[in-house]
Design goal:
There is one protein chain. The protein is an alpha/beta fold. It has a single domain (about 5-300), classed as Metallo-dependent phosphatases (Purple Acid Phosphatase, chain A, domain 2, 4-Layer Sandwich), CATH 3.60.21.10. About 25% of the residues lie in helices and about 25% in strands. The protein is built from 7 helices and 14 strands. It has helices spanning about 5-20, 60-65, 65-75, 95-100, 125-130, 145-160, 195-200, and strands spanning about 25-35, 45-50, 80, 110, 165, 170-175, 180-185, 210, 230, 240-245, 250, 260-265, 270-275, 290-300. The strands form 3 sheets. A 6-stranded mixed sheet has the order 1-14-2-3-4-5. Strands 6-7-8-9-13-12 form a 6-stranded mixed sheet. Helix 4 (about 95-100) links the parallel strand 3 and strand 4. The longest helix has 20 residues, at about 5-20.
């Protein structure tokens, strides 16, 4: 086999694997310690789902099709979605029956991401800035009426699947007779988040406070201890990751964000960033398997989680 033939074979094999990985959804289980968590909430199970990008054709649809069986296997108490439910502002209607089959006794809550508003960066921007390890600053460039229309449409559609949209809003619920608060903000990176409005609704006396944000960058803008747990997505864990000699890997689809996936702890806040279910720009993944994550909460000092 000559050099060109070998290179062609390796390229085709790599692309085939990347297509396979893009639909290789896993249910990732994490035992997560949160300082100050009431003992009665030990074992509370939160299913974190992000970045479905519904509307992207195969193999993305095959990853989404595996979502419900994995969610039913998880048997969560609470399900939380962190944005990009659809791709490029496409309708959720074809996916409502699927989403309604996901059950949780404490409810299902969601926030919107940039794609839900029809906001996306070009493939060239993502690739170039990913290689350079730099972030792209976002800008919504949407009218208030356009944003309001998108929010209303998604609120109504998600409601048909028993999912409550939190758009710069907070909701108070009870788990095992313990009050807790879930807050959700609109797309932070593109300037649609209204933290002032959200903070007016915060109750810092609640023993557990959770913030949903599509963009993980919100963690750098929170007060110390403002929330115990932040859930975010957006980065896809890099989606396509290239090994790097001293950085470890370059995340091509996250615009050089320092947040890839997994857990981050800053100023009394624990954040979980999901790799997400779907793909964007290209229907491929490499070294970033799609996932939904079951977080089992435990009181503790915030030690390293166990899988």
């Amino acid at each position: 086999m000559n050099g060109l033939a070998l290179l062609t074979s390796l390229t085709l094999a790599t692309l085939s694997y990347m297509v396979f990985e893009a639909q290789w959804l896993r249910l990732h289980r994490l035992r997560l310690e949160l300082p100050g968590l009431p003992a009665s909430l030990a074992g509370l199970k939160i299913l974190h789902i992000s970045d479905l990008h519904a509307g992207v054709p195969w193999p993305n649809e095959r990853a989404i099709a595996k979502l419900v069986p994995a969610a039913l296997e998880a048997a969560p108490d609470l399900v939380l979605f962190t944005g990009d439910m659809t791709d490029k502002k496409k309708s959720l209607e074809p996916y409502l029956e699927m989403l309604s089959r996901i059950r949780a006794p404490l409810g299902k809550y969601a926030v919107l991401g940039n794609h839900d508003h029809g906001l996306r960066k070009s493939a060239l921007h993502e690739f170039t800035f990913g290689l350079l390890g730099r972030k792209i600053s976002g800008g919504a460039n949407l009218s208030d009426d356009e944003v309001a229309t998108t929010v209303t449409r998604n609120r109504d559609l998600l409601g048909l699947a028993d999912i409550t949209l939190l758009n710069n809003e907070c909701v108070n619920i009870r788990a095992r007779d313990v009050p807790l608060q879930i807050c959700g903000i609109d797309e932070f990176e593109y300037g649609l988040a209204d933290m002032d409005a959200t903070r007016k609704q915060e109750d810092r006396q609640q023993p557990l406070r959770i913030l949903l944000s599509h963009s993980p960058d919100i963690i750098s803008h929170l007060d110390e201890g403002e929330f115990q747990l932040v859930l975010a997505g957006h980065t896809h864990g890099g989606q396509i990751c290239i090994p790097h000699p001293w950085k470890g890997r370059i995340l091509l689809s996250s615009s050089g964000s320092e947040f890839a996936d997994g857990l981050y702890r800053r100023s009394g806040v624990t954040m979980h960033v999901s790799r997400g279910v779907g793909t964007t720009l290209v229907p491929l993944r490499l070294l970033s398997r799609p996932e939904i994550t079951l977080l089992e909460l435990q009181p503790g000092q915030g030690d390293e989680p166990t899988a």
